[in-house]
Design a protein that fits this description.
Number of strands of chain B: 10
Radius of gyration of chain A: 22 Å
CATH class of the largest domain in chain B: Alpha Beta
Number of helices of chain A: 10
Oligomer: heterodimer
Number of strands of chain A: 0
Number of helices of chain B: 7
Strand content of chain A: under 5%
CATH topology of the largest domain in chain B: Rossmann fold
Order of helices and strands of chain A: HHHHHHHHHH
Radius of gyration of chain B: 19 Å
Distance between the termini of chain B: 41 Å
CATH superfamily of the largest domain in chain A: MetI-like
Helix content of chain B: 25-40%
Shape of chain B: globular
CATH architecture of the largest domain in chain B: 3-Layer(aba) Sandwich
Structural class of chain A: mainly alpha
Helix content of chain A: over 70%
Number of domains of chain A: 2
Order of helices and strands of chain B: EEEHEEEHHHEHEHEEH
CATH superfamily of the largest domain in chain B: P-loop containing nucleotide triphosphate hydrolases
């Protein structure tokens, strides 16, 4: 245990060091460039960030963006999970849906924004549609692959022990597909972030981090843009460490079903 | 609870791209309640196919199978199955929760199924590992959990498909002793598939020897040895020699010196 803790803290130190080096490089670049307003040094970014924190713009816009990601992801999951399971278990459903999924999967969600705004008008609905679209395909694809990865020996063992259809899905197929489902969720949330920021820039709903970036461009305010980027990065790190890592630790890593991340 | 098994003229045929293959041809045998039957034969003799039909994973092309007097597939029959593959355990459940699965499917309450499962965990000697996940257990331990899991819901017959074939020789010896004592304690009807003649002689009341291409029953041999059996005794070795001769793995005795 202490060995893993030592390895983990060593990893943390290395990670922090890498970030510090990047910051130092940026600072050097910022200080030597001609215009500090276009490439603001760290101090200026810090001030801007603090200002946005204090006057509440950061909070309200972050909440809007997070809300859209969450809502969009939930809607996507509500459709993608049952449909993915169905595709994995039924040949017919697979033949029916897979071609559609395969065609829609590679289309970038942002390519739909003009159409969505045409259909739903500028604003929140179109933005959330983009998020749903972005989140949907990686998830359904992985749920489908996960269900197909379930070892036949597990379903056989469960059936012979008297598992009915429902118990088989809930107590065998679902936990057995979790490694893929978690991987899919991770990808899906990542895509949802791309979708939401892009959607907020192009479909201009009121509030949203994408909106702040877009509007700041009008005023050539690079430090606001960079501040928002920092916030987005931080949210990403937090979701990864505290949600996905914790989720994996409590499930597939504990069960020995995840390929170990540390070698 | 122990059920008898009757296999009547069972044939299993499947088709490949090149035509149909006769995996099992006209097999008939019976297993009395609480009897220990071993089926030995070379690979491709259809012994696993027979087990899969007994388990209900495959339906015979012709013939019928009765367990506890009831035709298979019509009535809901309870069977426990132990596979060769260690991966049979559910990795997302602890050893104890794996053993609880069958009871859970029968709607047994939590406290009761926990207690029953614990009994069987104890029966296979793993009480210290009840809250361990399968990936942290050795192959032999995983197979013990699988045995406990197949017994916990008290099925009438226990079907075992080369459960120790992938274990090292020493662990396998231990596990055979364990199966013999579990059988003595639970008095289940057991059908045990193996390609290991010594294992069959050590465990079985009766051994069915099969031949390959097509899979047919060559001979049914009763093992008259008293239990517990001593694998180094003369009778044990003589029985083993006889079985090997029937299998065709060994030329009839003449010059061959005693092993």
């Amino acid at each position: 245990m202490s060995r893993t803790r030592r390895i983990r803290s060593a990893g943390l130190i290395r990670g922090v060091l890498a970030v510090l080096i990047c910051l130092a490089l940026w600072e050097m670049f910022a200080r030597t460039s001609r215009s500090t307003s276009l490439t603001p040094p760290l101090e200026l970014i810090g001030q801007t960030l603090a200002g946005m924190l204090v006057d509440g713009t950061l909070l309200i816009n972050t909440l809007h963006t997070l809300g859209r990601v969450l809502l969009g992801f939930c809607i996507a999951a509500l459709i993608a999970v049952p449909l993915g399971i169905l595709m994995g278990r039924s040949r017919f459903a697979e033949r029916f849906f897979l071609p559609v999924v395969s065609v829609l999967l590679p289309i970038p969600s942002l390519a739909w924004v003009p159409l969505f705004t045409l259909w739903f008008g500028i604003g929140n609905t179109a933005t959330i549609c983009v998020v749903v679209y972005a989140a949907f395909f990686p998830l359904i694809y992985n749920v489908w692959a996960g269900v197909r990865s379930v070892l036949p020996i597990w379903t056989r063992a469960a059936t012979v022990m008297g598992a009915g259809r429902w118990a088989l899905w809930r107590k065998v197929v679902w936990p057995a597909s979790l490694p893929y489902v978690i991987a899919g969720t991770r990808l899906s949330v990542g895509r949802a972030w791309i979708g939401v920021i892009g959607g907020e820039m192009l479909a201009s709903p009121t509030f949203g981090l994408g909106q702040i970036i877009f509007n700041a461009k009008e005023f050539l305010n690079a430090s606001v843009m960079l501040s928002v980027l920092v916030v987005i990065g931080l949210i990403g790190v937090i979701t990864e460490r505290f949600i996905f890592n914790a989720l994996e630790e409590a499930t597939i890593r504990k069960w020995g079903m995840a390929a170990s991340a540390r070698r | 609870m122990a059920d008898g098994i009757e296999v009547r003229g069972v044939t299993f045929e499947y088709s490949t791209g090149l035509g149909s293959v006769l995996a099992v041809k006209d097999a008939s045998f019976t297993v009395a309640p609480s009897e220990f039957l071993c089926i030995v034969g070379p690979s491709g003799c259809g012994k696993t196919t027979i087990l899969n039909m007994l388990a209900g994973f495959l339906a015979p092309t012709r013939g019928e199978i009765l367990i506890g007097g009831k035709p298979l597939g019509k009535a809901k029959t309870d069977r426990g199955v132990v596979f060769q593959d260690f991966a049979q355990l559910f990795p997302w459940r602890t050893a104890l929760a794996n053993v609880e699965f069958g009871l859970e499917m029968r709607g047994v309450g939590k406290a009761e199924r926990r207690a029953t499962a614990m009994e069987y965990i104890r029966l296979v000697g793993l009480e210290k590992f009840s809250s361990t996940y399968p990936h942290q257990l050795s192959g032999g331990m995983q197979q013990r959990v699988a045995i406990a899991r197949a017994l916990a819901y008290n099925p009438g017959v226990l079907l075992m498909d080369e459960p120790f074939a992938a274990l090292d020789a020493m662990t396998r010896d231990d596990m055979q002793g364990l199966v013999a004592s579990v059988w003595a304690a639970t008095k289940k009807t057991i059908v045990y598939i193996t390609h290991n003649v010594a294992e069959a002689v050590y465990l079985g009341d009766k051994v069915i020897v099969m031949a390959a291409h097509p899979g047919t029953i060559r001979q049914e041999i009763r093992i008259p040895l008293a239990r517990p059996r001593d694998p180094l005794s003369d009778e044990f070795i003589a029985t083993q020699r006889h079985l090997l001769t029937v299998l065709g793995a060994r030329k009839p005795p003449a010059r061959a010196a005693a092993e």
